[in-house]
Amino acid sequence: MVPISGFPASKTFNPHGLSFSNQTQRVYAVNHDCGTHVYEGIEIFRLVRGPSSLKLVYERSITSASFPLGAMNDVVEGAYLGELYVTQWLAGSIPEQCAGHESFVDALKVKINALFRRMSKVHRCVWDTEKPEDAARCSVVAEGFKGANGIASDPDKKQLFVIDAPDKAMHVFDRTQDGSLHLKHILQLPYLGDNVEFDADAGKLTMAGSPLMHEVIKRLGGDASVEVSGGMITVQPLTNASYIVQEILMHDGSLMSFVSSAVFFHGNILLGSPPSDGVLVCPIPEHPISSEVRSPSL
Fold it and tell me: 205: Cβ–Cβ under 8 A, 6 or more apart, which residues?
């Protein structure tokens, strides 16, 4: 467990998407805060490394009136400290988020918006690192997703990758000099993707994948008895603008249901899931389940 220092006592920490920047040694966490001041935002921490320990030091929170409660999903640092991008996977707020439940109408709206309407977005926020008391400035830089989920950048911070989970697609954006995003193309995935990370050592994007949508819908609907199968998908960019898409690993859900993240770690694959108290450690298979070169659509 990594201790956190300086976090305001009036806040609660209910993290959703997490991101770490090697460049600035900052940890970013989407937070559904249900403390004294109920709000949706991103918490920023500085990672402090000791001889044999790690510590997170709270720096500031990023909030915006454009962040619906319970609707923000994942975050990634931009080209510099003082810029971030965050996905909004739900069209609107969940009024009962902090009460621990939602009404039937709220749940129905979420499902209808995700399945039939493209109301999900990506926001860009910038702030003055020398003036922590000043509010961040946030604006929408990409929209039209069914459910923008994971977000990651390449090591050079020149491209951003956004997973649209319900659409089974990965949107690739070029980051322009002013921080706006230009859609380069869209890559279809084998099935629903969840979260995404750029593994610089492997030169690939890694993400979780759930092949059976009906399992996911039942689990999201509150049926905890459903063992949702899931595993790892990798996407390797090629120089000719195409991608090698591989299904690396698939688990039947018996040991970990509803896999939502998948990364390489010291010769193994780590799978994570919101309902789980830990991670599932799996050896990297000798051969992928499937491998194909896919061309994106413009």
Answer: 152, 161, 170, 196, 197, 198, 199, 234, 235, 236, 237
Rounded to whole angstroms, how far apart are CA atoms 217 and 231?
17
Residue 296, helix vs strand vs coil: coil
Model confidence, pTM: 0.91
Question: Rounded to an integer, what distance in angstroms lies between the CA atom of residue 144 and that of residue 170?
Answer: 13
Mean pLDDT confidence for 46-54: 93
- Please tell me what DSSP assigns to residue 189: -
Q: Residue 99 pLDDT > 60, yes or no?
A: no
Q: In terms of DSSP bridges, do strands 4-5 and 54-63 run parallel, antiparallel, or are they unpaired?
A: parallel
Confidence band, pLDDT 50/70/90 cuts, at residue 163: very high
Residues contacting residue 236 through CB under 8 Å, at least 6 positions apart: 202, 203, 204, 205, 243, 244, 245, 246
